[in-house]
């Protein structure tokens, strides 16, 4: 009886004694790294975006919001922004339904289902740069696979990546190739964690396959679908590594994404103010999307 | 009776046929580019043009052996390996310490600090790449492995801390309380109890971080100048530039650089998928 409060008192003292010292040991490395390499640069991007600066010395030529005006006035950035929207659209309209269909087919184990899952997931694990190079071989007008298909039909081989009309289309195919497996795996994980009794109950009640899918399985998948949409949009906004080996944003800035536009027109020419302004715009888009989406669609999670 | 059962089965079989056809189509869509790359590396340039799909008439092993015997190839893999390993080790140390504090030590402002650290999930590293370049330059880390490693660690902290914290929280808290009463320090408990118990999640976070680092392109592109320091995604772009349309060599080079990735994928597949789905639950 009397030992109990004493023990808990000792316990509390022991806990509070070590607590502060431990916090001072555990937290600073993460806080320091994160602040120096993530948070400060974001703040500095906002600051630098007010200057005309090539990165040498310190920024002195303050030009206010002119960099933002230059960005919005350039033809290239508008195209890049539209391309990002196009990537988002293809991800949502083609990629996610494809991933969901495949997940529904492959969630149950049968001969070859695990092998197919792994095959479909494999492109996601490969580096974007290698993927881009593989497809620039496939699209190559002289040696590529597509060119040889055209030749067997006696047609002139197109140079898909060299035309402003088709460069973006060619990239979109690679985007689907590379990322549908990732979403498929998310859906498979969700399907496997699903309560099968609900499906069976619906079957016993006489629901058809389609009705079960439409009214039981898909609603149960909503949290995962919402998450998948979130990943698809945020990923689409970041796309860069695939674009560089395929087209470097060309021809004539037709296949840039916002990040490749930032790299080509800001980083490689060290236009720090201009590039930072693009970075800030991208930051605002990403954060606005993330916060709005979480508030509206992912409140329950 | 017999008739109805056959009639009942026939549409089902048709569904099965469509299903198999569809799966075969998607499988071909994924596999053909990969197989064409692998096989293309065994062909001559002339054959690549006339016979891009089929098996090579004569297997040009030399395309591959020349690359395997070059210093360049191994240098690229070594650079990627060094950058990846340091990124993983630093991420695991720093993230697990912070995650432990958030999981087990109650303190004022804990949830605010956690939101601060996980803000990194919301935006890509590219948004601040120019100021980041200037920071790394001012710290004297430009053209140095650590100019790539430290920002990569910083950007991987958010997801790593979230995953680790959730795992740590599931470990019995009473164990820690008992240990503290017995005079054990938080750090000793973390070091001798939490970490050994957390091997699965550490492996998962480590694998994911390694794959990210191994494949990363933008950060090394901006932070490194010397070709001797280039990781393989940068090196392969240079190689492709040099050999512009000698696709048989480029394809062999791509295949050989993808080999470690694919081996890692085969061995660590469980951890990669686990991390993906665990990360997904929280977002």
UniProtKB/TrEMBL annotation, chain B:
ABC transmembrane type-1 domain residues are 77-268
Superkingdom of the organism of origin:
Bacteria
Q: Does the keyword Transport apply?
A: yes
One MF term from GO for this chain?
A: ATP binding
Coiled coil ranges: none
Cell compartments where the protein resides: Cell membrane
Would the keyword Cell membrane be found if you checked this record's keyword annotation?
Answer: yes
Biological process (GO), any one: transmembrane transport
Which keywords does the record carry?
ATP-binding, Cell membrane, Membrane, Nucleotide-binding, Transmembrane, Transmembrane helix, Transport
**Origin species:** Bosea vaviloviae
Q: Which Pfam families match?
A: BPD_transp_1
Q: How does it sit in the membrane?
A: Multi-pass membrane protein
Query: Entry's PROSITE patterns?
Result: ABC_TM1 (PS50928)
What is this protein called in UniProt? Thiamine ABC transporter ATP-binding protein
Membrane spanning stretches: 20-42, 76-101, 113-133, 145-164, 247-268
Which family does the entry's similarity section mention?
Belongs to the binding-protein-dependent transport system permease family.
The cellular component terms of Gene Ontology attached to this UniProt record, alphabetical and capped at eight, are: plasma membrane
